[in-house]
Amino acid sequence: MPLPWTKSARDKIFVNYRRTDAQGFAGRLADSLTQHFGAERVFRDVTGIDYGQDFEQVIVQRIEEACAIIVVIGDQWLSAADENGKPRLFDADDYVSREIAAALEADVVVVPVLIGGATMPRKEELPAALADLAMRNAITISDERWAFDVQRLAKVLAIDVEGSVTQSKLDLMRSVALLGLTALSLFATIGFTHAAIAWAHGAPSLREAGYTPLASAMQFFGIILAGVMFLMCVPMIEASRRKYAWAGVGLATIGTTAPFVHYAIRNVDMPSISIAINYAASMSVAVGMLALVALVGFREK
């Protein structure tokens, strides 16, 4: 699992299409995929090439950076021809054909997307360099089911393409939760161990040894942070794992509220035994939260 701040050298999603066949659709699809994977990762030739740049050089560079290529196939994709009536797919200078061939040769994930009632071309209808395209599973996207179909495509891409916008958020939240729980628990453990040793060697109490009620409650700050992270993540994670996230929210709520209510009701000055119990309770809750972080998995829905 890559860290949230790491980035693969090949992380672009390339939208391949023929302008006479699917220009408007390709733009809409690219915009929708941008919401899932981020604007810097989705590339389309019209919006991805600045004025004055070498078109062919940029296309080659983008294919080299791509982790997936979406081939948009409309009802005129096969029949598109030049002014002499020659099919464009069989033209050695046809960019659509060259982009697909380069992706197939580079072993990039290729996903055909069918629109406007189009069907997958047969192997014998394609140039030799594109023959493998006929063997790829296609996804149909329609206007009537646009949101559902695009989400289905995004999920297919997510299998091979790591680091969607949602997954990046989940990875970051998981890291924050783990860091908060681990760092504050470690700090509290070091302080408690030091005070316990001093107490064993004659210190009147843990408080006199330097371990204050605030220090014994340090883990609770990490638990609260982890609970907030769980709550924020619930709508984004897999449905089958949400029960663990809700359990984390509940454990954080009970595990932080109960000790403070207990000491407020008792209104005591927290003697050494109370401080020790407070530390033990918070550590138990922290360990439970760490276990729930593992069970949740923090994978997007």
Can you walk me through this structure?
The chain has 301 residues and is of the alpha/beta class. It folds into 2 domains: 150 residues, Toll/interleukin-1 receptor homology (TIR) domain (Rossmann fold); 131 residues. Helix content is 55%, strand content 8%. The chain has a 5-stranded parallel β-sheet, sandwiched between helices. The longest helix is centred in the middle third of the chain and has 36 residues.
Provide a concise account of the structure shown.
The chain is an alpha/beta fold.
Keywords:
8% strand, five-stranded parallel beta sheet, 2 domains, Rossmann fold, 301 residues, alpha/beta, 10 helices, 5 strands, 55% helix, disordered N terminus, single chain
Topology:
Layout (H helix, E strand, L loop, with lengths): L11 E5 L2 H19 L4 E2 L1 H4 L6 H11 E8 L21 H11 L3 E6 L24 E2 L5 H15 L4 H36 L12 H4 L1 H16 L8 H25 L5 H25 L5
What order do the strands of the largest sheet run in, or round the barrel if closed? 2-1-3-4-5
Low-confidence stretches: 1-8
State the total count of DSSP E strands: 5
Q: How much strand content do the residues show?
A: 5-15%
Provide the structure class: alpha/beta
Query: Major sheet: size, sense and barrel closure?
Result: 5 strands, parallel
Instruction: From the 3D structure, determine the CATH topology of the largest domain.
Output: Rossmann fold
Q: Give Rg in angstroms.
A: 28 Å
Domain module tally: 2
